[in-house]
Amino acid sequence: MMTTSASFSSLNIDKWLVDSLSAMAIRKPTPIQAACIPPILAGKDCIGGSRTGSGKTVAFAVPILQQWAKDPFGVFAVVLTPTRELAIQIAEQFTALGAPQNLKICLLIGGVDMRTQALSLGTRPHVVIATPGRMADHIHSSGEDTICGLRRAKIVVLDEADRMLSETFAQDLGDCLEVLPKAGKDGRQTLLFTATMTEEVKMLKELEGREGRRECFVCEVETDKVAIPPTLDQRYLLLNSFTREAYLHTLLSTPGNENKSTIVFTNRTETANLLTHILRQLGHRVTALHSQLAQSDRIDSLGRFRAEAARILVATDVASRGLDIPVVELVVNYDVPRDPDDYIHRVGRTARAGKAGEAITFVSERDVALAENIETRIGTKLEKYVDEPGVSLEGRVVRETLQLVSEKKRVAKMDIDEGRNEMGKRKRKLVEKANKRKKAVRGE
Asked: What is the 3-state secondary structure (H, E, C) of the chain?
């Protein structure tokens, strides 16, 4: 394996790509990039495992673009990734890298007009970046003339492969792969990248040589099995479940935390939505990221948090993987994740690149077993949260914030209900207008 002392030029990367990387302030390959780029350029299948933030997108984007530039016609590569935000982020990197060669990208994600996407897909873009669900929608409904370019793709990438190979995406991914060229020496080249090297991912290596498949290169560099950063302070806070909101507000308001860039993770979108409204009522600069938001709102929220216009991001696990968020000082697990791997991904949002960070997990009477599972998975015990000097968190909750937060929670619920009613009215008006137009066409 090559070391980070290598340069992109020494990996036989074309000058135009080296210049594009330099313009993005990427001058030396990371370990995963140095290891995977040469075998991908040599035509091998690749399974690349490396922790979040290690540059996996560049590891597959650079060799794809170098090979595409030799014959820039039609759909050359398809990249499948589990979330809209990751798809957008990957598209941004491909766009920046491929700009000197007039790269055409098609982005297929939910929350965007299907017809606009179908028109883009029908123009034979060079790289298609998609979530499996939306690509499957196009396969089923957009017609052969639109999707036929997918059948000639040379390279297929599964990003966050451990999630893509889970039951959640099984049906949609299967539909996508049915349309894409078959794997094999004379078929597509397949690249899998992940932060967590699961057994399902490793099993694909065993297919090498069967049914005429390509040679497969496997690289595992600091995957998230051992990726709890040494600079991360992990703690738990034991509390009663009905006091969660009050503890969260109090914790975020302590002198040590009141200026920290913070992500608050929840297990459910409804919880994230309610918490966002409560914290806003309490005067926090907060924004949200979850699947119930419109795509434009999700993009805006992430942009506000990155630009520090919002100090707190309340999110579900759509924000736990892969997203490029430069500085997060505190992660709060408002809900204990049910999968210990999700805990690793969540806390991996902070203490990056050798910087210090803190993760605090709220543990109620019902969460003890889940917390113990996490401790077993990471191989260490979570430390008990210790109050800041002169600040009694429990005392402030009981004396000052419990009643206040309860009042704000009632107001937040009213706001949410009013918003739903207003949305319902708008939908009914749109339906009425559509029905009137139909009647007018029929001459009724």
From this structure: CCCCCCCCHHHCCCHHHHHHHHHCCCCCCCHHHHHHHHHHHCCCEEEEEECCCCCHHHHHHHHHHHHHCCCCCCCCEEEECCCHHHHHHHHHHHHHHHHHHCCCEEEECCCCCHHHHHHHHHCCCCEEEECHHHHHHHHHHCCHHHHHHHHHCCEEEEECHHHHCCHHHHHHHHHHHHHCCCECCCCEEEEEEECCCCHHHHHHHHHCCHHHCCCEEEEEECCHHHCCCCCEEEEEEECCHHHHHHHHHHHHHCCCCCCCCEEEECCCHHHHHHHHHHHHHCCCCEEEECCCCCHHHHHHHHHHHHCCCCCEEEECHHHCCCCCCCCCCEEEECCCCCCHHHHHHHHCCCCCCCCCEEEEEEECCCCHHHHHHHHHHHCCCCEECCCCCCCCHHHHHHHHHHHHHHHHHHHHHHHHHHHHHHHHHHHHHHHHHHHHHHHHHHCC
